[in-house]
Design the sequence.
């Protein structure tokens, strides 16, 4: 199964969500890999920080659209779950990432909501959908603050769009950044609420995948 995590906007939580999902899946016993498609290679670096005694996650860097398509096919049989950590920059690569995913997760951060980037992304998304009409795409609200009305308004506005939304929302938690610089996921860190959130998202993704 391939889980694509993508968006056209940088810094919305693609790598954080990719790493946290991969860690949950690895602890659940799935043979898990992350394919990092961003030239900043943050998940590749993260894997270098990861202690070898932890459940294993293979992390490969593939930043070229064709190389991604060909190599994913080769490694697909060797893993139960491959998480593609997306790039905000090149739309051909974004299209390939969208088409490869059995499920597509699109993190959005309400506080930095950028209509322009979302519209541009939706253009790429609609185009990719012509190649794959059964696209299973979901927004994942990241850095959600339930006390800010604006955030709730945006959440309502997103419901109007043709893309579903994951029920699990990720709050702003220092633990995500702290775990990441240690090569960990929240599942392996001390903040139980972050652990619960990450586990809940992983379970929700698995439920969608099992119902495909
Ligand atoms: N829910 C959260 N709570 C607190 N910090 C977060 C959360 N999600 C992401 N961050 C932090 O925000 C920053 C950007 O997140 P991340 O690197 O996951 O985004 P990205 O979409 O992969 O960015 P890029 O487009 O640059 O690859 C990181 O420092 C990360 O630790
Ligand atoms: Mg990233």
Sequence:
């Amino acid at each position: 199964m391939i889980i694509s995590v993508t968006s056209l906007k940088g810094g919305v939580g693609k790598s954080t969500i990719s790493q946290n999902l991969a860690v949950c899946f690895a602890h659940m016993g799935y043979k898990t890999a992350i394919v990092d498609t961003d030239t900043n290679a943050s998940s590749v670096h993260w894997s270098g920080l990861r202690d070898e005694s932890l459940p294993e996650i293979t992390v490969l860097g593939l930043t070229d659209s064709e190389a991604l398509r060909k190599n994913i096919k080769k490694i697909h049989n060797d893993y139960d779950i491959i998480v593609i950590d997306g790039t905000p920059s090149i739309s051909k690569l974004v299209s390939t990432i969208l088409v490869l995913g059995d499920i597509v997760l699109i993190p959005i951060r309400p506080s930095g909501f950028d209509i322009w980037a979302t519209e541009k992304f939706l253009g790429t998304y609609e185009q990719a959908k012509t190649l794959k009409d059964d696209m299973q795409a979901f927004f994942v609200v990241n850095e959600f603050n339930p006390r800010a009305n604006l955030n709730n308004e945006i959440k309502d506005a997103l419901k109007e769009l043709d893309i579903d939304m994951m029920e699990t929302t990720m709050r702003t938690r220092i633990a995500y950044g702290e775990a990441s610089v240690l090569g960990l996921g929240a599942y392996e860190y001390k903040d139980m609420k972050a652990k619960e959130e990450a586990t809940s998202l992983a379970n929700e993704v698995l439920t969608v995948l099992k119902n495909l």
